[in-house]
Every structure is written in C-alpha cells, then in structure tokens.
Automatic annotation (TrEMBL):
This is Transport permease protein. One of its GO terms (cellular component) is ATP-binding cassette (ABC) transporter complex. Its main location: membrane. It is a multi-pass membrane protein. Residues 19-248 form the ABC transmembrane type-2 domain. The keyword Phosphoprotein does not apply.
Length: 253
C-alpha cells in the first residue's frame, strides 16, 4: 500500500478542515447547541422524561447523530467533488495510487472530522444537560461506524454529483428529513401503532436507537439489530464505491 499517498491526501483534507474551522466545526456545534437550548427547554418543560431519561438528555444522541450524518456526507462529498470540479481528479487517477488508497484517504479524513465534531458536540451537550454514557465502548463503535458509513455515502454522492446543487440534494432533502423522523426528538413508542411500523422502514431509526442505547440503556429496537443494520448499510456503500471505480462511472468522462 502507498502509505505516502494516503497520508498526503489525508493530511491535505484535514488541513482544509482547519483552514475553514468556523464553517467545519464552529457552525455545526453552535447550531446543535441551539437545538439543546430550544428543544430541551421549550419541549422539555412539557415532556419531563422519556423512558426514564430527562427529555433534554434524551435528545442528545439524536442531535449528535443528526450532525454526524450530515457532516460526514458533506465532508466526503465535497472532498472528492472539488478535485473533479478543478480537474485535478485526473492527476489522482493517473498517479500510482490505487482506488482503495484513494477511498481510505478521503473517507478516512471525512470520518475523522465527523468523529471529532461528534465528540465536541457531546462535550458541549454536557454543559447543558446531565449526560451519562453507560456503554462508552459501544458509543464509540456506533460513532465510528456511522461516520465511516455516511462518509462512504458522501463519497458516492461526490462522484455522482455534476454540480454544487446536487451535492446538497440528498443531505438536505433525504437524510435530514429521515433523521428528524427517525426518533431524534422522540421515542417511536410515542407514535400510533401504524406509524411505529412505518418508521421501522427508516434506516436512521436503527442508528439513533443503537447510539441512544449506548448512553442510557434504552432503545426503540434491539441494539443487535441496530448494529447489524449499520453494518449492512456500510456494506451497501462499500459495494457502491467498488462499482464506481470498477466501471469508472462519472470518473472517465
């Protein structure tokens, strides 16, 4: 493996994050903090507890997951789209760097940034609500797997997009609504029976449920099912990336 190339691309992507610190880190943290204040205080005064957990603390895993999903996709999609936009992607494709090394570098950098952001948001949340983590190992596992999975999805979107508008299409119109409807602010047990069954078709439910379980030991679905669904989604994304590089889709034209 060409570790020099992997390290160079990885460091370049990480340096881009620190050059745009306000946009990459500060803005998502401030936005999520506003959710803590607005939803935690406004709705929390009407819903004291959910599943034995105070409402302000209950929404923390969902809000972390909301930022993690959107930022993982945004970081990875922009990271690979910009070389396409400027034409430097052809230098990468003609360099002695394998497709696996490209994916490791770009997706690894995007996932690292997202995990950093998730940890900062958790630290910020602890300033507003009493936060406890019952299963820190599983918390880190879900954090890492979700960041990697959605960074892979963002990588696919970055290859697929042929304009800046398309970069925002899936995160804005699909991922964010699915996250809001996936139990970020409520337990699906609070829904009518029919909508509980419909909600189970939303894959984000399993991510949030498993992540929330690692904090409080409460979940809408079994943690084992959540973990399996996360791995299945990651497998689908890996298959998508492998197909793109095998066929040259949107890379050779």
């Amino acid at each position: 493996m060409n570790l020099y190339a992997v390290r160079a691309i990885y460091r370049f992507e990480m340096a881009r994050t620190f050059r745009t610190l306000v946009q990459s880190i500060v803005s998502p943290v401030v936005s999520t903090s506003l959710y803590f204040v607005v939803f935690g205080s406004a709705i929390g005064s009407r819903i004291p507890e959910v599943g034995g957990v105070s409402y302000g603390a209950f929404i923390v895993p969902g809000l972390v997951m909301l930022s993690l999903l959107t930022q993982s996709i945004s970081n990875a999609s922009f990271g690979i789209y910009f070389p396409k936009f400027t034409g430097t992607i052809y230098e990468l494709l003609s360099a002695p760097v394998s497709t696996l090394e490209l994916v490791i570098a770009y997706v690894g950098a995007a996932a690292t940034k997202s995990v950093m952001l998730g940890i900062i948001i958790l630290a910020t949340a602890a300033l507003f609500v009493p936060l406890k983590i019952m299963h820190p190992g599983f918390m880190l596992l879900f954090l890492a797997l979700t960041a990697l999975t959605f960074s892979l999805l963002g990588f696919i979107i970055g290859i697929w997009a042929d304009g800046f508008e398309k970069l925002q299409f899936i995160p804005t119109l699909i991922i964010t609504p699915l996250t809001f409807l996936g139990g970020s602010f409520y337990s699906i047990d609070m829904l009518p029976a029919f909508w509980q069954k419909v909600t189970l078709f939303n894959p984000v439910v399993y991510l949030i449920s498993g992540f929330r379980w690692s904090f409080y030991g409460v979940s809408d679905v079994s943690v084992g099912v959540s973990l399996v669904m996360t791995l299945v989604f990651m497998g689908l994304c890996l298959a998508g990336v492998a197909w793109i590089f095998k066929t040259g889709y949107r890379l050779k034209s």
